[in-house]
Amino acid sequence: MSKKMATTGVGTARKSKGRGSPADAYASARAAKLDQQTPKWPELRVSISDSHSSISASGITHDLTSDDPQSEAVTFAADQARTNGKPIRMTATMATGDVHRMIVTPERSVVLLDHARPAGATPDAAPATTGRKSKAKKSSSGRPKSSGILSRFPPRLQPIIKWGAPAFVVLLVILVGAAILKGPKQPSTTTTIAQQEHPVPAPGALYTVTAPPGWSQTATWTVALADQTTPYTDVDTGVTAALTPDDGTTAQTAHDTEPNIAAHKANYLSVLSPDGSTRFTEPLTTTPVYGPVITTIDGAKVVLLQESSTTITYWPIAGGQPTNVTLPDGVSGQLNTTGPSVMVLLSEQRVAYLHHGAFQTLEALPLTTPMFANDGSVISAQPETGAWWSQQIDASPTSIKPTPPAGTAGIDQILAITPQDAIISWKGTPPAGSYNAPDVVAAYDVATGKLIAHATSANTLSPATAVYYSTQHNLTAANGFVLSTPAGQPATLTLINGLQVSAVYDHVYGQDQNQPAVINAAGLAHQLPASALTPVGASADHLMVASQNQLYALPADPTHSTTALPAITTAAATSAPATTAPATTAVPVAPKPTVKVAPTPATSAKVVPMTTTKAVPKTTPKVVPKTTAPAKPTAPKTTAKTATPTTAPAQKP
């Protein structure tokens, strides 16, 4: 054995000054390698104190309530690491003020990073030496004689002690590092992914504002929102897309790091899972022009954002590489995502829809108004006939022309068209000796053109500036009417004079008789308190509301129902005059099929901007411009919308 190898035994002086033991070097190398391989985010943040301990995951704080918060934090981190399929970073601030940076593996191993990059630390001091080289003594056999502690062991055991000791020290360092966080108690190792498959987000209570009826005052989870933005929740997947001030992995915001920037600036696009945890984030350099929205492109759910006037970007809803698409030249308005897919107007004669990763341009049909895009086609309305058309590239247009209800004398106007329903007003036939007759409002299935409900209008209605619909609850509503199409049951159409709609989810939300109101599927209105919040989204089991730059995911609460709210009196007699019957209920015609618009996927609580006009009488050859509606006595109307309610407040009704 050489002299050099003999002098590296445990307990002897090192020839290379300023270095620690081989065990320290190994631990540092392992920590540095793991630090390099582990993603910078997500990062868990733990705060341990005598009075309160917590852990922040994806920007949501979770209380540590066990008797051993250190052990609970490690278990939480290991479960999160297993869920992510990779180690996860964690920073722990102890009650003493000490801060420990570490990485927790799915196997519950804790690797301290302070060895790799200690803050303000200096290299380990080397043992003192005399400065002289000492030669190792040789035995009678000519081999170097072992010195120090190693020489006390039999020669056969010396190689084992020599190479086993460093491995033992490495293991000891790891165990000591875990003990710093775990505390004196031995943690249970029986925790499985199934016990805590998703992190439990922090709840949030509504104090001075009121949740919508049927929903709890305490949210399952909350998340901070950027100023002047509205999130979007997809009812099919429960995924929420929002503009946020941080990336959901740290408590720091732009305000913390850049004092001249508002704390609620839109710094990130955050996509959240149904439990509120961050699915993925994308940093933003500027405030987006449009979005975010969740829509369908080429048969797949995507999160879409328009960051500039020339380009849009969308990501797979599960995360992945983005797709950038350049907008066509001559765009005359913002994106239209009110239908299942994406459309943009280029001029009065040209329209484009997003398909196959690019915008496909069409020449608009004469005397029609493009309404929205299905996945692979554009739907347009023809005001003069009440028909709606489907156009796509490399195919002939197709149309569905509705049949007028009995006793009508031609079309009056198209009130609304959505991916699931069309609402059309028909002129009534005046009785003998009279020149006036009430209009008949009829609802049709867009997929088939079948008449599903109709009602006699005691008041003159105008085309809706915006129409809202929810495929989850089979509701469509706009100013003046509510259509309910429950699967397997007769559809009902209720006309309500003075109704102004602002959202449709589990109920219709808006104003009735100039009072905040919630309207059920039967058209019965209940007055809401002034403090009531209007929903901004819905999933299968949560209703989303926003207040003071916070999004609240509210669970259902049957005890908080509309029965405690005062009803707004509205008559429902179809034969009563308008002065005493501000509402008329539809005549059920037939059950509506369960699938309304095949094969396009369902969307939730969207708003379709209406620009259709009243049809020109057949005796008048002049065509009224499609974007101009005739003046008619109407109830107060909301501000016209050109986008879904998931855009900036400028588009709110």
Report on this model:
- It is a single chain.
- The protein is mainly beta and 653 residues long.
- It has a domain of 177 residues.
- It has 5 helices and 42 strands.
- The strands form 10 sheets. Strands 3-2-1-4-5-6 form a 6-stranded mixed β-sheet, with helices on both faces. The chain has a 6-stranded antiparallel β-sheet with strand order 40-32-31-30-29-42, with no helix packed on it.
- The longest helix has 25 residues.
- The protein starts with a helix and ends in a 44-residue tail after the last strand.
Mean pLDDT across residues: 73
* Main sheet: strands, sense, barrel: 6 strands, mixed
User: How many distinct beta strands?
Assistant: 42
Individual helix count: 5
Helix content range? under 10%
Strand order of the main beta sheet, please? Answer: 3-2-1-4-5-6
Counting helices, strands and paired strands, the structural category is: mainly beta
Uncertain runs with pLDDT below 50, 5 residues or more? 1-19, 115-147, 184-201, 250-262, 571-605, 609-653
Beta content: 25-35%
Radius of gyration: 34 Å
Please state the overall shape, judged from the principal axes of the Cα atoms: elongated
Distance separating the two termini:
86 Å
